[in-house]
Design brief:
Layout (H helix, E strand, L loop, with lengths): L14 H16 L17 E5 L6 E2 L2 E5 L4 E5 L4 E7 L2 E12 L4 E3 L2 H4 L3 E6 L11 E7 L1
């Protein structure tokens, strides 16, 4: 049996006291969330999210249906994309614009849209033409 002695002049700390800060750091780094996919910098996001560029040139989900009054936020999973309301390179001006954002950035859909039932198409300006067709639809129900 090995005696539990510390070297002369240095008291030995129990392992559980040493492990506690490491465990705490790991838990904080993981976020402690309850499942689902959290946005990269999603602090304070409420309601529903649409991921931008989640699997390449796509929105995820491509179609989102929410009840009127539900906040909706676009979250950039990858950079090189924009969000504009409208259809295939024809902006309606209701939300978003052609500004390309980077990973981790967010854009909230205005309450004037999310409070009004209707179907709101949107697209990514750099990927709206040709075969890319990066587009989606926000449906707001009463």
């Amino acid at each position: 049996m090995i005696p539990n002695h510390a070297p002369q002049g240095r008291p030995r700390l129990p392992l559980n006291l040493l492990a506690a800060p490491v465990l705490l750091a790991l838990l904080l780094a993981c976020g402690g969330g309850g499942g689902g996919s959290a946005p990269p910098s999603g602090g304070g996001i409420t309601g529903q999210t649409i991921n931008v560029g989640a699997a390449g040139n796509f929105f995820s989900p491509e179609t989102l249906t929410v009840k009127a009054g539900t906040p909706v936020t676009f979250v950039w999973i990858t950079g090189g994309h924009s969000v504009s309301s409208g259809t295939a390179c024809n902006p309606s001006g209701l939300f978003g614009n052609s500004t390309v954002l980077t990973q981790g950035q967010t854009m909230q859909v205005p309450a004037s849209v999310t409070n009004t039932p209707g179907s709101y198409p949107f697209y990514c300006t750099p990927h709206c033409a040709g075969g890319a067709g990066m587009k989606g639809t926000l449906i707001v129900t009463p």
